[in-house]
Design goal:
The protein is mainly alpha-helical. The protein has helices at residues 2-35, 52-59, 62-94, 100-110, 115-126, 132-141, 153-177, 182-189, 194-223, 226-232, 240-248, 257-285, 307-332, 342-345, 351-358, 360-393, 397-407, 414-425, 434-457, 463-470, 475-486, 488-504, 507-511, 520-529, 533-564. The chain starts with a helix and ends with a helix.
């Protein structure tokens, strides 16, 4: 019996290998095939090969503007966003600024707010016609022309930069937190001021790490879809991600899958190059490691009279992030949109919430979303745990193949991957069902799950599994009864991350949307586009509230534990 149980381990690995190959490699191969297929055909319609789609990309003059827009958008957003994140990370991790735990919790919480929702909120704030801030400026200063406009490249850059800050903060704060304070202490002994220590010691030490964060975020912004779709299309600012979407899902006419696939392949090549640059930067940053085997407690810089001014400056960022949500909250309380005023406040009610919750379309979208996020989170973490276990414990070439392939989606932009998923399952029974959305999320998020579980399992010594084996337990029993209970917090964290990102994602639901698989994100897009501004605002607030209720309690606990460690 023990032998038979042990024999199932290679079989299980083979099943996982086939599953991951279909999930990850299948869509990419179909995308490559579609990019060289004749115009007007699907990948499986024949075996004809042409490079006409690539020739069209490199010969059309407007594609040079497309590349320039994408580059300017990504560079500007990352430069501003990473700079703000680094400053806030320094304030919360290296100084005695008040309310550091609150700042961390707020920063983590913003990652649960969908970019789709923030984009809609900013439109209400600074659109040229009746944006609240433009109306306020007109009332206070008597200006006749709008001061702000959301439909410009710089507005798109700044709004994206503000959205980039939370993720960049999470990555940079770890660098700041783990710095050995000995160099700063030595500088303080020699009379260096706090400003000198930051400029001459702290920043040079974290610069390589911040560079790697910048490259990672640049890659993420190049792949970004939500904000370029919401703001960039109306402003007529095309970027690569929106071009891929419009070619595959045009408002009128026949989808051009061949040209969209060719653009997708080029975007995939750019992402792979950026991924290579990211890993190079990470290797370089390892030369600047400042944490040794000796125990240490990071020293906080005493700010003195600057404690509260710095706190006020950090809070300015959160105020900027709250304004769009506040505008959506205001719009959700009125039957027709009105600018904020005391007079309009008398008409506020929760009628829009009652209406949307009572609509059959919204109810189906909520049920579909619940099924989608629970299934996506559970499948991703279950599959990731098995892959990570084989990667850490296994020494075979097949285990290494599965490990590498499961990480591959990191280099595939979501809009490209969902395009590939669409082409792969377009003529299958899965198309148009909720399961194709779940497959898309599992494919994209498997890389995160595998990396997080791999790091957790590396901390568990193999002697525990060996002891279980000696006692007669099979490999799966040892994994289920011993290993997984020890890494349960990591599984829960990963599950929450996948659930939150699956719920807030617009790319997969929008590209794969049919009447039978509408979820909250795609329903929100439809209601905004209809337009049903009060209803869309109410759905947006319900989505944000649900995500925050899920994420914030855990983040408060984690932040308090981290503060006690200091």
């Amino acid at each position: 019996m023990k032998a038979r149980r042990g024999d199932r381990q290679p079989l299980t690995l083979w099943v996982i290998a086939v599953l991951v190959t279909v999930l990850v490699l299948g869509p990419v191969l179909v995308l490559l095939r579609a990019s060289v297929g004749p115009a007007g055909t699907l990948p499986f319609d024949g075996w004809g090969v042409t490079l006409a789609h690539y020739a069209s990309i490199f010969t059309r003059a407007d594609n040079l503007r497309l590349a320039g827009n994408t580059l300017l958008y990504a560079l500007g957003s990352v430069a501003i966003g990473v700079a703000i994140a680094t400053a806030i990370a320094w304030a919360t991790e290296r100084t005695d600024m008040p309310a550091r735990v609150a700042a961390r919790v707020l920063m983590f919480s913003w990652m649960a707010v969908p970019p789709l929702v923030m984009g809609f909120g900013w439109i209400l704030l600074i659109n040229p016609g009746n944006g609240a801030l433009n109306a306020l400026a007109k009332h206070l200063f008597g200006v006749t022309q709008p001061i702000f406009t959301i439909y410009s490249m710089w507005s798109l850059i700044v709004i994206t930069a503000l959205a980039v800050v939370p993720t960049a903060f999470v990555m940079v704060s770890g660098l700041m937190r783990n710095m050995d304070p000995q160099l700063e202490q030595a500088a303080a002994v020699h009379g260096a001021s706090a400003a000198v220590m930051v400029r001459r010691i702290t920043l040079p030490l974290v610069a390589p790490g911040v560079l790697s964060v910048g490259i990672f975020m640049f890659m993420a912004v190049v792949q970004a879809f939500d904000l370029p779709l919401i703001i960039g299309l109306t402003a007529r600012i095309p970027v690569l991600s929106t071009r891929v979407y419009l070619l595959s899902s045009p408002d009128a006419g026949i989808p051009n899958y061949g040209l969209s696939s060719a653009f997708g392949v080029l975007l995939l090549a750019v992402a792979a190059l950026l991924m290579w640059a990211y890993f190079r930067a990470v290797r370089v940053s390892e030369r600047f490691r400042v944490v040794t085997g000796r125990g240490f407690r990071p020293r906080r810089i005493a700010l003195g009279v600057w404690r509260w001014p710095l706190f006020a400056a950090v809070m300015c960022y959160f105020v900027l992030m709250l304004l769009p949500l506040a505008m959506l909250g205001w719009a959700s309380l009125l039957s027709t949109y009105q600018l904020p005023s005391l007079g309009a406040l008398g008409e506020a009610s929760f009628a829009s919430y009652a209406r949307v919750v009572g609509e059959g379309k919204v109810q189906r979208a909520m049920l579909n979303t619940l099924i989608m996020v629970l299934a996506s989170g559970t499948i991703v973490m279950a599959l990731s745990s098995l892959i990570a276990w084989f990667s850490v414990r296994g020494r075979t070439a097949l285990a290494r193949y599965v490990d590498v392939l499961s990480f591959a989606p990191t280099a595939v932009p979501p809009i490209v991957m969902v395009m590939a998923v669409l082409l792969l399952y377009l003529q299958s029974p899965l198309y148009g069902t909720l399961w194709i959305l779940i497959l898309g999320h599992v494919t994209i998020y498997i890389a995160f799950g595998t990396r997080s579980m791999g790091a957790a399992l590396m901390q568990i010594h193999k002697e525990l599994a060996d002891a279980a084996s000696i006692s007669g337990a099979g490999w799966f029993t040892g994994l289920r009864r011993i290993t997984l209970p020890l890494v349960w917090p990591h599984i829960l964290n990963g599950w929450l991350w996948v659930v939150a990102h699956s719920a807030r994602d617009l790319t997969i639901p929008l590209v794969l949307m049919t009447t039978g698989n509408v979820v909250v994100a795609s329903a929100l897009w439809q209601m905004w586009d209809f337009p049903d501004l009060p209803g869309a605002s109410a759905v947006a607030m319900l989505l944000v509230t649900g995500l925050l209720v899920l994420v914030v309690p855990l983040q408060i606990y984690v932040a308090r534990q981290g503060e006690r460690g200091h």
